[in-house]
Each structure stands twice: as structure tokens, then as C-alpha cells.
Specification:
The chain is of the alpha/beta class. It has 2 domains: 108 residues, Elongation Factor Tu (Ef-tu), domain 3, CATH 2.40.30; 134 residues, Nucleotide-binding domain of ferredoxin-NADP reductase (FNR) module (Rossmann fold, 3-Layer(aba) Sandwich). It is 25% helix and 34% strand. It is built from 7 helices and 12 strands. Strands 4-3-6-1-2-5 form a 6-stranded antiparallel beta sheet. The longest helix is centred in the C-terminal third of the chain and has 13 residues. The protein is globular and about 55 Å long. The protein binds flavin-adenine dinucleotide. This is FAD-binding FR-type domain-containing protein. GO terms for molecular function: oxidoreductase activity. InterPro entries: Cbr1-like_FAD-bd_dom (IPR008333), FAD-bd_FR_type (IPR017927), Flavoprot_Pyr_Nucl_cyt_Rdtase (IPR001709), FNR_nucleotide-bd (IPR039261), MRET (IPR050415), OxRdtase_FAD/NAD-bd (IPR001433), Riboflavin_synthase-like_b-brl (IPR017938). It comes from Candidatus Roizmanbacteria bacterium CG07_land_8_20_14_0_80_34_15.
């Protein structure tokens, strides 16, 4: 079967989800958490890491935009998205203009970015809204025993940081989870409260990782890496890991 035909059949198989947009919370200057309640069907079954296709109504027809589900799959009657509003963006602009109570339609769920069920340690390397599918995974995932979960999350500035309390909460609850937020555009970490400094690193994700794992390079070849974020960053992180002899099959990624 040709790829085009396969994609058309696959799209055809995806379910339509009618939802009501119920609320949004501002996470930073241009990123929002959107909450949708399902009304037809009333439930969604998805694997943490999968995305959903937003139908953006136009004057004639609609266009589609893909967004990773950021909530736990244990919540079946609603779901959340973390979306950055892009200047002049059709999908993100449509979302940011929504009024509470309106109907919003999606198709899905879809995608292969999901946690492998094995006992390898899992290392998440994400930038910006690439945190969305990881939030779903860590909220849903802790049935995988004996694996350690380390998150390296790249943001530009301290003012861009969100979900800090949520991440601190997971860390308290789950001993096998740890995280570092890597700030690439700050000069220093002086603005961060003393008790939170341990969660931050000054620089990019790869340098943070190098620093923490310098003495454990023999170990990283058995870990699994989950990369998510902008296309170019994911590609360069992938090349970085390959250069450290991480096997290709242990690098799982989603490019936005
Ligand atoms: C599998 C998958 C999952 C995704 N999940 C998420 C998610 O969870 N959260 C999320 O926010 N996005 C996610 N995206 C990206 C999302 O699908 C859209 O591409 C993004 O929201 C921009 O769409 P738009 O319609 O608003 O902008 P468009 O109308 O497509 O673009 C408008 C203009 O902005 C430019 N532009 C587009 N994106 C950016 C950007 N990020 N920064 C600067 N300029 C840009 C374009 O080049 C264009 O000139 C995902 C993408 C994929 C493939």
C-alpha cells in the first residue's frame, strides 16, 4: 500500500471528538494550558505521549494542527493541551481567542511517541512546550517500576518557567523522578529562590547532561532517551546522543 493511501486510511480511522472548551490558565507570557471537556463521545482513550488533531474552522472548511495531550490518561472525560501562542499562527491564535463554553472539535488520538514498557532508565530531553507529552507520561506512568526518570527541560529565561510546583510535587512523591530546568539565556541564577536553585542549571540541556553524566558514560548507552520540542533542537540533541554512542533505537523523539 502506498504511503499516501496509508495516511488517508489512518486519518479515516481516527475518531472525532466534540469538546467544550472549559478554561485556560496562563503559564508564561505566551503559553497557555487549555482544558477541554468531552461531550461526544464522552471518553477518550490514549497513550501518554500521543497527540490530538485540532480542527481549526476557516471561512471555508478547516485546517488541522497537531497538539500533544498534556494531561494524564487516567482522566478520560477531559484533556489538556499546553500551547504556545505563535504570532499570526492559525491554530494557536484560534485557541487563544476561544471563549469558555464554545464547542471545539478534534480528531485522534495519534502518534507513536510513547514510553516503552521496559525497565531501562528514561531520560527526557525537551524544550519549551515539548514538556506537554512528558507531563502526560509522568502523570500517568508510574506503574513502570524499577526505572529512574530524569527530565532535562530547556527554557530561555527564568520568567518562562511554569509547572515548577507540579514538578517539585512529583519529585516528592516519586523517589525515582528527578528534574533540571536548563536556562539558556540567563547570565546567572541569582534571581531564583535559594531553596529552588537545585532544580536549575545555567546553559543548554546538552551541557547540563554532560555535567551530570560525565562519570556515567558507560551507563547512558543502556538508557532510553525521549526528545521533544522544535524540529532543529530535537535533531541536534539526537546527533549529540548518537555521538555519545547511544544506540539509535534508544532515542525516541517527537518533532514539533
Ligand atoms: C506531533 C506534534 C505535536 C505538537 N504538539 C504541540 C504542543 O503540545 N504545543 C504546541 O504549542 N505546539 C505543538 N505542536 C506545534 C503545532 O502543531 C503548531 O505547529 C504550532 O502551534 C503553530 O501552529 P499555528 O497554526 O499557530 O501557526 P502557523 O499558522 O502554522 O504558522 C504561523 C507563522 O508562525 C511561524 N511559526 C510556526 N510555529 C512557530 C513557532 N513555534 N515559533 C515561531 N514561529 C512559528 C510559521 O513559520 C508561520 O510563519 C506540535 C506539532 C507536532 C507535529
Amino acid at each position: 500500500m502506498g504511503y499516501g493511501l496509508w495516511v488517508r486510511r489512518k486519518k479515516h480511522m481516527l475518531s472525532i471528538y466534540k469538546t467544550i472548551f472549559s478554561k485556560k490558565s496562563q503559564l508564561n507570557s505566551n503559553t497557555y494550558l487549555y482544558h477541554f471537556n468531552l461531550f461526544e463521545p464522552k471518553e477518550i482513550i490514549f497513550k501518554p505521549g500521543q497527540y490530538i488533531i485540532l480542527k481549526v474552522p476557516l471561512e471555508k472548511g478547516y485546517i488541522s494542527r497537531l497538539y500533544s495531550i498534556s494531561s494524564s490518561n487516567t482522566e478520560k472525560n477531559s484533556f489538556e493541551l499546553i500551547v504556545e501562542t505563535v504570532l499570526g499562527g492559525l491554530g494557536s491564535g484560534y485557541l487563544s481567542s476561544l471563549k469558555e463554553g464554545v464547542e471545539v472539535n478534534f480528531q485522534g488520538p495519534a502518534g507513536m511517541f510513547e514510553l516503552k514498557k521496559n525497565e531501562r532508565d528514561k531520560i527526557f530531553m525537551v524544550t519549551g512546550t515539548g514538556i506537554a507529552p512528558i507531563r502526560s507520561m509522568i502523570n500517568s506512568k508510574f506503574e513502570i517500576r524499577n526505572s529512574k526518570f530524569s527530565l532535562f527541560w530547556g527554557l530561555k529565561n527564568y520568567k518562562d518557567v511554569y509547572l515548577l510546583n507540579e514538578l517539585k510535587g512529583y519529585k516528592l512523591k516519586v523517589a525515582s523522578f528527578d528534574f533540571k530546568i536548563c536556562l539558556s539565556r540567563e547570565q546567572n541564577l541569582d534571581m531564583i529562590p535559594e531553596e529552588d536553585k537545585k532544580y536549575f542549571f545555567l546553559g543548554h540541556i546538552d551541557s547540563c547532561f554532560e555535567k551530570l553524566f560525565t562519570n556515567h558514560y558507560s551507563l547512558i548507552t543502556v538508557n532510553e532517551f525521549y526528545l521533544c520540542g522544535g524540529r532543529n533542537i530535537v535533531e541536534s540533541l539526537k546527533q549529540f546522543l548518537l555521538s555519545k554512542n547511544v544506540p539509535k533505537e534508544n532515542i525516541i523523539f517527537e518533532k514539533f
